[in-house]
């Protein structure tokens, strides 16, 4: 691997790490915002989910912009929005300002992810493409691990001190992007509608959305439940730090399994795990037991990301879709689930109880398992006559 490619890999990895750190820093801060601003669970869900809402709105436009305007320039724009969001979130004291800052962060993050990964793929040797994407995503998981620590630091010091400093780091990364020469292959064309007709794209999109629904619900209700059980902001951060570490260990193992044994094996295992966790998460009345269930839940849902995104990527590549737009589709699928889970799940819990949104997720997981089994049987049935004619 050449030095310029290695440097670009390091730069894109650093960008996704900082973005995910800022995104996940809300977790230990959420109970504090609920107390100080007198927020309902629905309002807390909107605050947590505003990032995903911004990503949802900007995913496809960001992918289109990167494919037309260029990945480098789109990446600089995304980082400028992200730096602004960091400062606004740190200095904001009113609920609408905090929600708007999270929304702006999601828009900037959509541009940074789609453009950064598309740029990386454009310079990557084809035989090392998967390795490079996996490295960047590994840094994203590291960001999810560090985010709760960042949030706990903001709780201990002040958001005004911590988050503008993160904005300064983002500005430094943007300057490095400016100094990095634009290079790489021109993005492929392709039509979005053609890609959406591929069943692998549709299945991969839903199987990206479902764990995002789960994590969105889980990410709002679990910190509030831990707070009710007497866990401090630092304790909540440690629980989610451990959960992200579990997910970071599970993800590469699952990726290798999906390469060797097909995408559906880890997807089915993840769905079974999510189904079980949906019944276990509302049950514990002691903090240490809930912490154990949180770790198991992160492992189960985290099993689905890599094979689901690979399934979607396979179909998009067959349709000849530009990589930036394909990553826009991934962002869209994730953001739709994250918004539905954090805002919708919290609202449903407000109106009923925490158990109800988990029951809805259990039902979706069960139906998805049945559809995967049916799809496999149909594929086998179609393959048998073809084998007989050969």
Fold and architecture overview:
The chain has 390 residues and is mostly helical. It has a single domain, classed as MFS general substrate transporter like domains (Growth Hormone, Chain: A), CATH 1.20.1250. Helix content is 86%, strand content 0%. It is built from 15 helices and no strands. It has helices spanning 3-24, 26-37, 41-69, 71-91, 95-123, 129-156, 159-179, 192-196, 199-228, 233-261, 264-280, 287-302, 305-318, 323-351, 355-389. Helix 2 packs across helix 3 and helix 3 packs antiparallel against helix 9. The protein is globular.
CATH structural architecture: Up-down Bundle
- What is the mean predicted local confidence, pLDDT? 83
Percentage of residues in helical conformation = over 70%
Beta-strand content estimate: under 5%
Order of helices and strands: HHHHHHHHHHHHHHH
> What's the CATH superfamily, by name?
MFS general substrate transporter like domains
Tally of distinct domains: 1
